[in-house]
């Protein structure tokens, strides 16, 4: 039994390696395409400038190492893409996955023609395939093919990049930048190609660089390449269909869902693919790429560890603290009958104002969190009527929440006589931090005003403590397990929240009205001269934290209005 067990352990490791290899080769090809498009964009200046930039680019891409890397990357990426397509047991995939697959298969049809007419002509006929030659050969007859090729390459690459980066916080924070670049680069590239193509018609001294015989040979070669690739595509589709038919006669397994549904499925399918094939609702935010963990299941009956989880699945399961009988449905391909239960509701996020509610599944982003608590209110409320207590508390909480909202913050919740607020949910981290600092200053002024206006109703002064900290937090609608989840408020979770709460608690001990972490000032790009700086220990947090001690909140200087 040793050899089969070793083979089982080896296959997942191989899959991980191939996935990483496919990503690496895709990045190489995308970098080549992006720089190529940017080189085209220089055509808006002049053809000479295009050629000057090209000379620097081909010094890398046409060197022996550069050519080897590019050619190897293309062949490996293409072959791995075909392998993934053929091995896919279910074709119930999302629209963008179909687009990525279809565009990837179509790219070589146009790319072969382009490469043969340029690099091929250079190798076969000694043609200097610079921009003067390429534009002369392609404009205007090949313009539509050039535009089509650029579109296929760019969209295919963008989808792959998005799948790789979509769960990284910095990627989501700069989404506006990626949209701008994804639009501008191909647009400017084709605009430069068009501008230079029109200008080439004024080059009266340009002579055809090939003889008629050489031209006829390359033209005939293009036909062989075109129909040869169509034949290859037919073989690929036939192989996929053949495996699909073969699967129908393979050994089947039974999957029982705890809701009562029992289905038969071909061995080799993942649990997520089985759910989709049988129209069983199954959560999967990332589309089955082992990144979000929303598809995870618990194995009730059957061998949960056969086949074992690969390194990628283990990493995700460890991150969510899953026990041994919990697996990712997108990665687990059972070989025997199982009884399972899904762990997350298979519902889609509600829409808010026509847009998908991003907080349904939760997002991770940079925010500034505030905790504000009223000091000594229990003493002040003693021997008072309940009406008076509620009146005083509403005056304080109402005015403070108005300040938070007016300065751009979001009131997360009221906790007795305390408030939790979030800044920077819908804007940059810098803007959120500056708004939070402005809110602290304004809240100090409101507290002074309340003490003056309520002087006759109170036997003392209202005091408060504010803790402020910036960092990454998870924002989501907690309790959003069913429809109508958009009505639930958004809350923040994570170490940033805990640290802000601890800073607020330290205000009483250190006799401060506000304690602000250095991270807030760094994020806001602000410096407050004259305020005391300390390093304090925070309970539950390793190491000291640099903070700004604020005796009275009104001491904070006013900042310029933050820009979103």
Which stretches of 5+ consecutive residues score pLDDT under 50?
1-16, 348-356, 480-487
What's the N-to-C terminus distance? 62 Å
What is the CATH topology of the largest domain? 3 helical TM bundles of succinate and fumarate reductases
CATH level-4 homologous superfamily of the largest domain = Fumarate reductase/succinate dehydrogenase, transmembrane subunit
Count of domain modules = 3
Overall geometry comes to: flat
Question: Any overview of this molecule?
Answer:
With 564 residues, this protein is an alpha+beta fold. The chain has 3 domains: 246 residues, Fumarate reductase/succinate dehydrogenase, transmembrane subunit (3 helical TM bundles of succinate and fumarate reductases); 91 residues, Roll (Ubiquitin-like (UB roll)); 205 residues, Nucleotide cyclase, GGDEF domain (Alpha-Beta Plaits). It contains 16 helices and 15 strands. The strands form 3 sheets. Strands 8, 9, 10, 11, 12, 13, 14 and 15 form an 8-stranded mixed sheet that branches. Strands 2-1-5-3-4 form a 5-stranded mixed sheet. It has a two-stranded antiparallel sheet with strand order 6-7. A hairpin with a 2-residue loop joins strand 6 and strand 7. Helix 3 runs parallel beside helix 9 and helix 14 packs across helix 16. The chain is flat and about 105 Å long. The N terminus is likely disordered.
């Amino acid at each position: 039994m040793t050899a089969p067990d070793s083979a089982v352990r080896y296959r997942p490791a191989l899959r991980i390696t191939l996935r990483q290899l496919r990503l690496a080769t895709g990045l190489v090809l995308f970098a080549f395409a992006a720089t190529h498009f940017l080189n085209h964009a220089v055509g808006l200046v002049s053809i000479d400038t295009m050629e000057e930039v090209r000379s620097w680019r081909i010094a890398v891409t046409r060197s022996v190492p550069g050519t080897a890397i590019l050619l190897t990357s293309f062949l490996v990426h293409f072959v791995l893409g075909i392998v993934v397509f053929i091995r896919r047991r279910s074709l119930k995939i999302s629209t963008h996955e179909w687009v990525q697959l279809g565009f990837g298969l179509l790219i070589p049809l146009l790319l072969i023609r382009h490469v043969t007419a340029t690099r091929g002509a250079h190798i076969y006929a000694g043609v200097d395939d610079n921009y003067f030659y390429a534009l002369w050969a392609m404009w205007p007859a090949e313009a539509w093919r050039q535009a089509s090729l650029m579109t296929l390459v760019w969209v295919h690459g963008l989808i792959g990049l998005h799948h790789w980066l979509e769960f990284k916080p910095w990627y989501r924070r700069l989404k506006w930048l990626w949209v701008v670049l994804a639009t501008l680069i191909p647009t400017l590239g084709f605009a430069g190609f068009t501008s230079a193509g029109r200008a080439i018609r004024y080059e009266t001294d340009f002579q055809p660089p090939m003889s008629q015989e050489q031209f006829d040979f390359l033209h005939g070669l293009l036909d062989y390449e075109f129909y040869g690739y169509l034949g290859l595509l037919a073989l690929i589709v036939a192989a996929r269909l053949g495996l699909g038919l073969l699967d129908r006669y393979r050994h089947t397994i039974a999957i029982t869902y705890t809701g009562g549904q029992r289905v038969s499925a071909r061995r080799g399918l993942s649990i997520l693919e089985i759910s989709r094939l049988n129209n069983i609702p199954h959560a999967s935010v990332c589309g089955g790429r082992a990144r979000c963990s929303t598809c995870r299941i618990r194995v009730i009956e059957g061998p949960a560890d056969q086949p074992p989880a690969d390194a990628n699945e283990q990493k995700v399961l460890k991150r969510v603290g899953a026990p041994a009988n919990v697996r990712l449905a997108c990665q687990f391909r059972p070989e025997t009958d199982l009884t399972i239960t899904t762990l997350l509701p298979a519902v889609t996020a509600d829409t808010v104002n026509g847009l998908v509610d991003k907080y349904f599944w939760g997002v991770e982003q940079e925010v500034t969190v505030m905790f504000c608590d009223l000091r000594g209110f229990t003493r002040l409320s003693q021997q008072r009527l309940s009406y008076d207590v509620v009146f005083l508390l509403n005056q304080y909480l109402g005015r403070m929440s108005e300040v938070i909202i007016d300065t751009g913050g979001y009131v997360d919740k009221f906790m007795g006589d305390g408030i939790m607020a979030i800044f920077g949910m819908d804007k940059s981290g810098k803007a959120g931090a500056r708004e939070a600092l402005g809110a602290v200053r304004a809240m100090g002024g409101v507290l002074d005003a309340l003490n003056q206006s309520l002087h006759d109703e109170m036997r003392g002064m209202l005091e408060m403590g504010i803790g402020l900290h910036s960092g990454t937090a998870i924002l989501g609608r907690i309790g959003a397990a069913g429809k109508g989840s958009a009505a639930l408020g958004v809350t923040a979770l994570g170490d940033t929240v805990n640290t802000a709460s601890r800073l607020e608690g330290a205000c009483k001990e250190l006799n401060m009205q506000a304690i602000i972490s250095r991270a807030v000032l760094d994020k806001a790009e602000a410096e407050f001269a004259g305020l005391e700086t300390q390093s304090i220990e925070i309970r539950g947090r390793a190491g000291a934290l640099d903070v700004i001690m604020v005796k009275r909140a009104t001491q904070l200087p006013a900042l310029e209005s933050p820009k979103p």
